[in-house]
Amino acid sequence: MKNFSEKHRGLTAWFVYLLNMLLVSQLIALPILSMGASIETANAYGMALSSVLTLVYVIHKFKDTYQSALQKIKFPDVVLACSSGLAIRIVLTLLLFSVMTIPEPENQEVIQMMFENSTPLVMFFTVCIFAPIVEETLFRQVLIGDLEGRVPVWIMTIVSSVFFIMMHSGTDLKAGLLYATVTIPLVGVYRYYHNNVAMSISMHFVMNSLAFISMVAQSSM
After folding, report:
1. Rounded Cα–Cα distance for residues 143 and 145 (Å)
2. Does residue 55 lie within any of the structural domains?
3. Where, if anywhere, are coiled coils annotated (predicted)?
4. φ, ψ of residue 147 in degrees (nearest 5)
5. How many structural domains is the chain composed of?
6. What is the greatest pairwise CA distance in the chain?
7. What is the mean pLDDT of the chain?
8. Would the CA dihedral through 187, 189, 194, 197 be positive or negative?
9. Which domain holds residue 75?
């Protein structure tokens, strides 16, 4: 039973993630809406509360993976990886904006809507805790690390990157290019440190925390 569970943990984690995001979040939003909250507020809290369920499930299923990954990293490596990843993202973003104009992605508008209709604490959890842990586990560990040896790594690296970009940008090509500047350093640090999901989670946390601080600063102006 344990081997079966470990073998299929990625599939079940993806199922739980999509179920909570697409269905459970809406079911949670309904009673909040009935209490007089706006649709935007109900959706924001529905998404946040369903994210808690996903996060708990993913951490439970992958706790051994996290423990192993944490044992293999050192703080200086985390600092180097995060600073290098941020530098790469900045350079790629500047190059991208030097050749084309990119409108604000729809996903960013959704995040801004959630920020305006919830509390900073809720948004910190959603953006800085839930997203880094769950997304890096599903897109990097499940699609690349867990399939290594069964599917060529380069194929799953591409699949992981494309899925991650499309999940955030949909079919908007320009928005996809913008999210590619985030995806490349995240995938790069994961692979460079031998599929260490703790490293990519750390970088994702830093990137999203900076974005969160920016949103808080803008809202206070």
Report:
1. 6
2. no
3. none
4. -100, 0
5. 1
6. 55
7. 92
8. negative
9. 63-219
Report d(CA 82, CA 88) in Å as an integer: 10
Beta bridge partners of 151: 148
- Listing DSSP states for the chain in one string gives -HHHHHHTHHHHHHHHHHHIIIIIHHHHHHHHHHTT--HHHHHHHHHHHHHHHHHHHHHHHHHHHHHHHHHT--HHHHHHHHHHHHHHHHHHHHHHHHH---PPPHHHHHHHHHHHTS-HHHHHIIIIIIHHHHHIIIIIIIIIITTBTTB-HHHHHHHHHHHHHHHHHTT-HHHHHHHHHHHHHHHHHHHHTTS-HHHHHHHHHHHHHHHHHHHHHHHT-
Residue 50 belongs to a domain: no
Q: What b/e readout covers 116-140, taking b as 16+ CB neighbours within 10 angstroms?
A: ebbeeebbbbbbbbbbbbbbbbbbb
Note the pLDDT tens digit of each residue in 5-56.
Answer: 666 899 999 999 999 999 999 999 999 999 999 999 999 999 999 999 999 9
pTM: 0.93
Asked if residue 92 is part of any domain, the answer here is yes
Q: How far apart are CA 193 and CA 211, in angstroms?
A: 25
**How many angstroms separate the CA atoms of 167 and 152, rounded?**
23
- Structural domain includes residue 174: yes
Hey, what are 7's tokens?
A: 């073998």
Instruction: Render pLDDT for 95-142 as a digit per residue (tens, 0 to 9).
Output: 999 998 887 777 777 788 788 888 889 999 999 999 999 999 999 999
